[in-house]
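Deviation from plan, reported transparently: fe (ii) ion complex.
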Amino acid sequence: MSSSENRVGIAIVKGDVNELITKLNQAYADEWMAYYQYWLCAKLVEGPIRVQVIAELEEHAKQEHQHATLLADRIIQLGGIPLLTPMAWEQTKGCGYDATKNAYVQAVLEENIKGEQCAIRYYNELLVYLEDKDPVTYDMILHILADEVEHEEDLTKLLHDLTSIKGV
Ligand SMILES: [Fe+2]
Ligand SMILES: [Fe+2]
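Because the crystal trials were delayed, the predicted structure below was used instead.
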């Protein structure tokens, strides 16, 4: 008998648990990519207000990593297995990640805002899917979505500060 058999905590999930695990694994892949994108951009970014931007990017990287941890724990709790390799992240990703070609602060902020907006849309759709199926995952995704909304706001404010300095 596998450890997930006869678990009431899994049985209360309405709908297809495997389908839910697939959706969570897509988010899991995207969180690792978001983590890496922030982590790398914090190393490479150049230009005005760089120090402020680095602090924000590092903070976001930490939070995307926490999201990956939450998702992995929930996937395992549901009897699934988190994606085993970075190659699988690439095959499963939703929002994904475009390699940074321009390290200038404005380009970095815009690129990361794009990523956050994609994540916000994905998690919002996931909440609609989960609404009448799984309150535990719903609650977790709601928490993650709130963080992504805050990330978009943080980056948008920095971009605004930057363009104010430049008088654009
Ligand atoms: Fe995230
Ligand atoms: Fe985020």
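The pocket of fe (ii) ion (ligand 1) is lined by residues 31, 34, 64, 67, 119, 144, 148 (CB under 6 Å). We consider this an acceptable substitute for the interim report.
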